[in-house]
Design a protein that fits this description.
Length: about 260
């Protein structure tokens, strides 16, 4: 059985001093010895001080985004070589970058490939909008996003080097969460499509979208939800610790 991964995405929140205080609180209350991988994804400005805060704690550190080149005339961008050695993980394809900042499926694939080739483990986010779900095209959208994410690779990446985060756009920051059954259906489909069409097996699939301490246990009880990408609740040490505890307490069937 693969250990669940619970990753907290702070998004564009907290000053550096506030972030250090939050990270210190998380370090003190989150149990990293209970068979759960725990990661924090703060703003870029926080990565270096938080690297020191989390040193020896077992909490992984991740970036919320990364560019698709290692260097060059790309004003304002952060390359994977700048992050390597400081970060364990990088997130690519979050819906806020796709829909607010215009990132394409191809952009996500390029970022994934560049980050992976420079030693970062990658969280690849996929998910459908409310309009796409209502139109019955959820699986088609997910398949397109998965195929584009893996398109730059000459051979499939090693499963241990990345995870997929299913985040229905209609559930991110809205307070509306996919039911455990809805989330499970799509997470199962992701695994099936990766195996059948892309020759990739053994990849963990997380759920993200208004995950809270109240709904985490029900989500983690589903067979194919192997962790969570947490937004708002990750800004509160007690709430995030409760989600980690729910992941530790879950006893999903062997996969």
């Amino acid at each position: 059985m693969t250990a669940p991964l619970v990753a907290g995405n702070w998004k564009m929140n907290t000053t550096v001093s506030e972030g250090i205080a939050l990270a210190t609180a998380l370090r003190d209350v989150v149990d990293t010895s209970a068979g759960v991988e725990v990661a924090v994804l703060p703003p870029f400005t926080h990565l270096w001080p938080l690297h020191d805060v989390f040193a020896g704690s077992g909490i992984l550190l991740g970036a919320q985004d990364v560019f698709w080149e290692t260097s060059g005339a790309y004003t304002g961008e952060i390359s994977p070589t700048m992050l390597a050695g400081w970060c364990d993980l990088a997130l690519v394809g979050h819906s806020e970058r796709r829909h607010l900042l215009g990132e394409t499926d191809a952009d996500v694939g390029r970022k994934f490939a560049c980050a992976a080739s420079n030693g970062l483990r990658v969280i690849v986010a996929v998910g459908e909008t409310e309009t796409e779900r209502d139109a019955g095209t959820t699986f088609a959208v997910i398949d397109r996003q998965l195929e584009a994410a893996l398109a730059p690779f000459e051979s499939p990446p090693v499963p241990e080097t990345f995870v997929i985060a299913y985040e229905p756009v209609w559930a991110i920051g809205t307070g509306r969460t996919a039911s455990p059954e809805q989330a499970q259906e799509v997470c199962r489909h992701i695994k099936d499509h990766l195996a059948a069409s892309l020759a990739v097996t053994g990849v963990r699939v997380l759920y993200g979208g208004s995950v809270t301490a109240d709904n985490a246990a029900a989500l983690f009880a589903e067979a194919d939800i192997e962790g969570a990408l947490v937004g708002g609740a990750s800004l509160h040490s007690d709430k995030f610790a409760a989600i980690v505890s729910a992941a530790a307490a879950s006893s999903p069937p062997a996969r």
